[in-house]
Amino acid sequence: YSETAFLTAERGDRAYEVRYFSPVAEVPFCGHATIATAVALADRDGPGRIVLHTRAGEVPVETDRDEAGPAKATLTSVAPSTEPVAAGYLAAVLAVLGWSQEDLDPALEPRVAYAGARHLVLAAATRERLAALDYDFGALRDLMLAEDLTTVDLVWREAPDRFHARNPFPVGGVVEDPATGAAAAAFGWYLAELGLVRAPAHVVVLQGEDMGRPSVLGIELRPGEPGVRVSGTAVTL
To answer: What is the pTM of this model?
Structure first.
């Protein structure tokens, strides 16, 4: 499993402390484990609002259920931000990925984006470049640890509000994360910071397709709201 969520204590009515662990490390926030946790709690206690107290801060989650499909959960992230990437560091990451500057979409500049965890956002110029993921696991892990990154968020823009994503996760001991709600939240703010979307906005991210484990994440930006909303579905097994 990419991440496992552990509820460590109850903090009142439908409020819990939570910690997230990958196979080899603890991460401060994991979006899809949050979605899955909320769905599991909705299955047990009924749909509604829960609050998760994470290492990154307080994350409210709304759950609802459609009788015709799986339960849906929508989280609201902690306050997001972005920061530039040093040219030398970017060159090192591209080399480890086997990418060149020409492989990048010039309209989507590389940045580190945060919405509970730090992700390096790199936009591929073509879907073919995104599909051909083959990287040096140990070298990328070491580069990511140096900048406290949780994943590298590799994206390709199909349309202004529709993206495909892949998330290498070697710092967690996983080659690729099939669904990354934390990166989706950070990416939503990245788009807003670059002026590529303006609230109110809804963006779709398709992830896991190249792994044979497809998922759909919905990103929502609301005027005046400090966090980014991310929606997804999950099923209990």
So the answer is: 0.96
